[in-house]
Structure formats: C-alpha cells, structure tokens
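BUG: 3D viewer hangs when loading the predicted structure for this chain

Environment: internal workstation, default settings.
Expected: structure renders.
Actual: progress bar stalls at 90%.

Input used:
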Amino acid sequence: MVDSLKKPGIEEIRPGVKAPAKDTILTPRFYTTDFDEMANMDISPNEDELQAILEEFRADYNRHHFVRDEEFQQSWDHIDGETRQLFVEFLERSCTAEFSGFLLYKELSRKLKGKSPVLAECFSLMSRDEARHAGFLNKAMSDFGLQLDLGFLTEHKNYTFFKPKFIFYATYLSEKIGYWRYITIYRHLEAHPENRVYPIFRFFENWCQDENRHGDFFDAIMKSQPQFLNDWKARLWCRFFLLSVFATMYLNDIQRADFYASLGLDAKDYDIYVIQKTNETAGRVFPVILNVDHPEFFQRLDICTQNNVKLATIANSNQPKFVQFFQKLPVYASTATQLLRLYLMKPIDTAHLEGSVR
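Structure tokens produced before the viewer hung:
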C-alpha cells in the first residue's frame, strides 16, 4: 500500500486492512433475534402483498448495476487531509451497516428455510442485495488505500439481541432512512455535478430503490402482525425507535459536517429534510410518528450535538480519567434530559393523517 494513502495514526489489523471502528452508541450494530418466534409468525393476513414483494426481489433489477467503470480507474490523492479521512469514515460506516444487514438477513433465511418459505426467500434475496452494497462500498474504500476485513467483522463484532418486533421497527426505519439519504444526495449531485467528487454517487439512484423495496417488505410484515402496531406498547416503542434512529443520524452527521460540505450540502439542512421525509414515510405503517416540525425538536438535538463536542474536548484533555469521568457526568445528564423531553413530546397519531395506510 502506498504510504500517502494512509490516514495518519490509523489503526490497521494488517497492512491495508482497517481495524473496525470501536463500538459506541452511535456506530452501526450487528443484530440477532429469536428465530423460532420469527418462524412461527402467521403472515397469512398479508401474504399476497409479501408474495408480490418477493416477485420484485426475484426480478433483481440491479443485478447489472454495481459494476465499476473507467471513472474509478484513477488516482484519488487529490481528496486529501480531513476530507479524505471523513470520506473513508463515510464509506466504512455505510459498508458496516450494509454488511450488518447481509449477516442478519442471511441468517434469517437459513433459519426460516422449510418453516416459512416466503419469508426465507425474501430474506435470502435481501441478503444478496446487501452483500452487493457492502462489497461495492468496501471496494470503494480500497481506492483510498484501505479495506475492511468483513470476515474479521463477522467474528469480532458484538451482536445485539432484539426480539422480532424490534428487529422489524429498527430495520424498517434503517431501510427507509437509507432510501431518503441516498436519493437526497443523488438528486443534489444531479443538480450540482461539480460537487460529485467521487463516482460512487452516480449509483445512488438505483441503489436506494433496493433500500425502498426492503423497507416495503418490513412494512408488509408488520401489517401482517397487528399485535406489533395496534396497542399502547407499540405506540411507545415506535416513538422510541424513531427518536433513536433520528438522533443517531443527526449526531453522527453534524459532527461530520465537513464531509457533506465537500458535496455542497449543509449537513443540518440535509438531516432535517431526511428526518422529515422518513418520519412522513413511517406514518404509512406506524401508529404514531414524531412531531419533527415542532420548533423544539431540532433545538434539543442541537444541544445534544453541542454536548458531544464538550465530551470530545474532555476526552482529549490531559486530565486523569477519573476527573474526566466526573466532568462528563453533567454533560451526559444534559443529553439524556434532552432526549427524554423529545421522547415525551406529544406525537402525531397517524390514523388521522390523510393518505395514511393502516
């Protein structure tokens, strides 16, 4: 590997292979679930829609899409310094998230085979899509002199257990917010091609359609399981997962505002738009959505981002660790307070929304 391609001080597990980012509350997670409960679900109330989605998966519209062309065959040394670092982080986070989906869907397809054929095949074909995405992103990282060892990730990443209904909430939102992230960047760069600093963004239009179809699949599953949507607990959990996904994206992106600036985007405006559109989309299946247009919603998230800066400053200080711990406590308390107040903010009942699909 050419030394000029390396990020200063980067941790590698071997030359050219980047060590995975350390797990934090904001990093992509790997999931596992109760496979027996998933296999025993009765999907007959919405099997026709699931069968129609399966036919779309079988069509494999993007089977010829993820092919690198001659535009990739050049040096990317002109993307350097902090921009290069942020670009690699973007590719790594995206690759890890896509690979997480691949592992979960692949395992679900294996465990459900012979028990729930429609779901097993859907998960198998979604894992195919996610593998393509992860592979394409990992190959893009190699243009910057680094790659992830996906086998190493499989063995060493911590796995979070979620019951099936939580898997559905989380993956539905992950796929739908992925759609809005990709299509928003794509449309912006179509209007401003001078900011398309790397060719991967040309692929985002078709790419995000995979995300959209995956989200529609989880939408259809949840509609086949009314117990996941139609009681008071569901309303609380939907609010929790919406806030978790939105806050995680916002805190991550605002601290990487320079990356979005390199694309000609304002990170805050971008995130507000993506959150609004994802929240609106979630109203087609969730019984409640968040009131993201409330003037306090993003004000409170901004306080959380300011707290993240304070935490980083404390962590980078020369103070002893025990002193840092006590310095961080009030900052953590402030963030927790803001998130709690956002969670308790009155939600919007989607049953009353025009065009809502219940």
